[in-house]
Design brief:
Blueprint lengths: L1 H16 L4 H34 L2 E9 L5 H22 L6 H4 L1 H12 L3 E12 L2 E10 L1 H11 L10 E10 L2 E3 L13 H12 L3 E2 L9 H4 L9 H10 L4 E9 L3 E10 L4 E11 L6 H28 L6 E5 L7 H14 L3 E6 L9 E5 L1
Helix pairs in contact: 7-10
Length: 373
């Protein structure tokens, strides 16, 4: 054993002092390089492992703000908010479908990012600087991944699992007193209205598939009783089965001289029930040409679709559980306090009730819509 150690010492001594042949020196250099590579790889893997672990729930971002009126505190606060926005933007871009921000920038900026910022649980300033009237901060954000995931999943934005939803639009358009709706004469393939064009564009940005009514040959025996203007929900579902679709978006667009009103309802085809409704009115100021009207209508539909889309994705993803809707019309309710007390009673004391929605009927006190599972 002692002799072997002595031999090794001599070999190392020879290698260092040059007393060895070229072949042994070449082998020694190769072994040394291998050892260095392995050591570097281990250190690098360890560092990457640490970074990956921290990147799962931490984001580093930089934010800036102009210093006005020598108000350092306000500039710092704005810089931190700017860093939080940038941080959550980067986090979302790494976790959602890559085409969403490009296809639906307004939705991404005005709706997705503000809601996702609620997933920031804490932050720490790791650097700050004032330079030429600008305050810059670097912060480390701690992200609650589960909150973000739940929100993205409910909105149908997860890259890994986006459900396919086919939508049939049955929305009439009344303009200058003239009413248009395609199901009046489906075989005649009436021209596509501005409402239909904008609906298809808006919901396509939300990664839904609009059903093309012009690409389907119609059988008059299947739709002859479905051409009335005001169809019942069962009739709307019948149309969705003919074309076919998963969801029907029904309602109307009323274009008047000084305003536009769009009312939409989402109906699940499988269960034949309404799962969402929304109505919005926007004033038309100044020029009311087609371009201005289109812009106003698109803004209304963007706001509406931003609220409808998450509901539809969540509903479809949950397996379309059976939902029972009960309309309750209240009489003798003279104050909001009474209405609030009744709603609280239904939600707190009636176990099967999952949600309550108050629907509007002009200036008439609205009935309550009761959702039971």
């Amino acid at each position: 054993m002692t002799m072997r150690k002595d031999v090794q010492k001599i070999q190392w001594h020879n290698a260092i002092t040059g007393h060895t042949d070229n072949r042994n020196l070449h082998i020694l250099v190769i072994l040394l390089m291998i050892c260095l590579c392995i050591s570097g790889s281990v250190r690098r893997s360890s560092a990457l492992g640490t970074d990956n672990h921290s990147s799962k729930n931490e984001v580093v971002a930089m934010g800036m703000s102009r210093i006005t009126n020598n108000d350092i505190a306000t500039a710092k606060k704005r810089a931190i908010a700017n860093a939080q926005t940038k941080g959550i933007e980067n986090y979302l871009l790494n976790n959602i479908h890559p085409t969403i921000p490009a296809d639906s920038l307004q939705w991404f900026v005005s709706d997705i990012i503000p809601k996702a910022k609620k997933g920031i649980t804490s932050f720490k300033i790791i650097g700050e600087e004032q330079n030429r009237g600008t305050y810059t901060v670097m912060v480390r954000l701690k992200i609650n991944r589960e909150i973000i995931r739940q929100y993205l999943e409910a909105a149908g934005l997860l890259h890994e699992d986006m459900p396919v939803i086919k939508v049939l639009f049955m929305v009439s358009e009344t303009r200058n007193g003239k009413r248009s709706y395609w199901w009046k004469d489906p075989e005649g393939y009436p021209p596509i209205t501005l409402t239909e064009i904008l609906l298809a564009k808006t919901f396509q940005k939300r990664h839904m598939i609009p059903v093309d009514r012009t690409s389907v040959p119609f059988d008059i025996n299947r739709y002859k009783n479905l051409t009335y203007f005001d169809l019942q929900d069962t009739d709307l579902v019948s149309w969705a089965k003919i074309l076919p679709a998963d969801i029907v978006i029904a309602g109307y667009t009323l274009i008047e001289k000084n305003r536009v009103t769009i009312s939409l309802r989402a109906i699940d085809v499988k269960n034949g029930i309404e799962i969402y409704q929304d109505r919005q009115t926007e004033a038309i100021s100044g020029n009311s040409d087609t371009d201005s009207l289109s812009s106003i209508m698109e803004q209304i539909l963007d706001r509406t679709a931003s609220k409808i889309a998450p509901v539809l994705f969540h509903y479809v993803r949950s397996g379309q559980k059976t939902v029972y809707l009960i309309n309750i019309e209240l009489t003798g309710v003279n104050s909001f306090i009474q209405l609030k007390a009744f709603k609280s009673f239904l939600k707190d004391r009636v176990a099967p009730v999952k949600s309550l929605r108050q629907t509007d009927w002009g200036n008439i006190p609205s009935p309550l819509q009761l959702n039971r599972r």
